[in-house]
Every structure is written in C-alpha cells, then in structure tokens.
Design goal:
Blueprint (H helix, E strand, L loop, with lengths): L8 E2 L10 H35 L2 H27 L14 H28 L9 H27 L2 H32 L7 H28 L6 H12 L6 E10 L2 E10 L5 H18 L3 E10 L4
Parallel strand pairs: 3-4
Antiparallel strand pairs: 1-4, 2-3
Length: 317
Amino acid sequence: MARADPHFYSRAVAETTTPHASANNHLQSGARLALLGIVVNAVLSAVKISAGIIGHSYALIADGFESLLDIFSSIATWFGLKYAARPPDDSHPYGHGKAEPVAAIAGSLTILAAAVGLSIESVREILTPHHAPAPFTLAVLVMVVVVKESLSRAVTRVARHAQSTAIAADAMHHRSDAITSTAAFIGISIALIGKHYGRRLESADDWAALFACVLIAINGVRLLKPALYDLMDTAPSKEIVQRVRNVASRVKGVVALDQCRVRKMGLEFYVDLHIHVDGEMSVREGHDIAHEVKNEVRRADSAIADVLVHIEPAGGK
C-alpha cells in the first residue's frame, strides 16, 4: 500500500472561487454607507461653513472644512471596498482584499492631516481678535452632532461585524466630526456666556477646536495601526488560531497538529495548517482527511476563505 508523502500538499478545490457571500455583503454594505457619508458630508460642510462665516465661529468653519476632507476619505473608502470585493483572478489569486487596509490607511492619514491643519488654524485664530459667535450656531451644531453620531454608530456596527479596518476608519471620520462639533458647541457656549457677563471669551471656541484636533489625531493613530498590521500580514488574534486548531484536531484520522498559520486578506482569512496522520495510510486516505479538515475549518468560520493542509506522517521527521 502506498504511503502518504511527507511533503504532500492537499488543497481541495472549493465549491466556488468567488469570495464568501458574507464578506461580499459586508463590503457592499460598507461601500453603500461610504456613499451615504459622501452625501451627508457634502450637505453638512456647506451648512457648517456658511453658518460659521455668518455666525463668526471659526470652530464651526473648521468643522465644515473637516467634513470636506471626510468626503475625500469616504471616496477612498468606497473605491477601496469596491475593489476589495472583486473575485480572485490570474493576477490576484488570493483576491483583492489588500485594497481594504489600503483604503483604511488613506482614511487614517486624512484624519491626521485634518487634525494638523485644523490645529494650526485654531492657534492662528486664538491669536487673532474676532467677534463672539452668534447664538444660532449652537442649533446648527446640535443638528450636526445628532446626524454624525447616528451615522457613526451605523457604520461602526457594520465595521465590527465585518472586522474591516477601512469601514472602521470611515466610522471614525463621522465620530470625529461629532467630536469637533461637540467641542465647538462647548466653546461657543463659553464665549456667549462670557459675552453676557461682559467678559471677552471669544477665543473659547478656538480652544475647543484645538482640543478636538488632539482627540481626532489620537483616533487617527489608533485606526492607522491595525490597517498597517493587516497590510503587513500580522498574525490575527489568537482566538481564531485556537479555533482552527480545535476544529482540525477533532477530525477523524488527525493524530496531531503542527504549525497553524493564519493571515488576513481583506475581510477573509487564509489558513496554512500542518497535520500528522498515520504514516502507513495511502495517499488517497491522507488526501481525504485533508479534505475533511479543510471543510470542517471553513464550516466553523465563514470568514475563512481557504485552508492549505500539509500532511506529515505521525512520528516522522
């Protein structure tokens, strides 16, 4: 009876070569929300900049320009997610998932650029005397906070379910907008209270904008790190690796497990797994076990796109 080759690799053909339906659905949902974000940001930026100019509030004007930057970020996210949803081809046999962290990096860098630019302008406005903001700007800011926070929570839910850094970055753009608007609301309120009591506190909204820039920069760095990790094939959480090992070890015929490597490609995971089987069994029997291991692992987690199984004889070197 022929023995299993220690260097035999079994890669059973999947039922379909297209990405998982769930991953595609997440990408499409994220792309639709990115388009919605473009429309919302276009409207809000026009409202905030106009209200800021008329109401003498630099914090509101800065907030409006940040929304303009968010439009470019959402466009990058939309293109990245649409490209990542493309099926594998001859040039990209593992799919186009790397476009997802690239879009996330673009979004994170936009956040950081906005924070730096707005902080510079905030300092300039602090040093420049100007009129106190108009009271009606507070109503505009309340509307902005409600809209952006609602949109941020909706996008965050999709990002968490999909484990997508690009969608998470888009959600943080909306959250950053809500943060700057909240800070502007506080700053303008302080300036108006100071005016009521005869104290010159016009720069309060500028200080509020500067504080918001610090928070935005922190969030930008926090989002940039996981995107870079994904792009560099950093190992995912230990939980998914342990889950793969647990499932594979329960398959009949698997004597022991050796290496188990998992890497993330967009919203999907690819597994390289070494299993030990009886060295006396046939190549066909080893192939069947490897096929079963692959099927069981993929059934255990719909985010796993493919499993490459390396068969080794138990007790061999």
